[in-house]
Design brief:
Layout: H1 4-7, H2 13-20, E1 24-30, E2 37-42, H3 46-58, H4 73-87
Antiparallel strand pairs: 1-2
Length: 96
Amino acid sequence: MVFPSLYRCNTRNQPRLCEQIGGKLVSLYFTLGQYDFIVVSEMPDAKAASMLVFVASGGGGIEGSVTTQAFTTAEARDMFEAAGKIAGSYKPMGAS
C-alpha cells in the first residue's frame, strides 16, 4: 500500500525549519497507527517547539498534532528529587 501524500513528503525542509527556530532535528519517523509520523527534535524551550508546530502545520498538510516534552533520566531524577523536598510541606485544598 502506498500513501502518495507521505511518499511525496519533502523531508529535506524539516532540518532547516528546526534550525531556523533555534533547534535541531534529531530524527523523523514514519509510523503506523494513530499518527503518520513522529518528529524528534531538540528545541531550546517550549515556545520554540510550539513555533515548529505552528509553522509546519500552517500550510494545512498537518492536523491534529501533539507536542510532548521528554526528559532524560538524569533530568527526571533531578525533578523527582526537587519535588520530594517540597512534597512534605504541600497541603491539598480542603486538607486540614
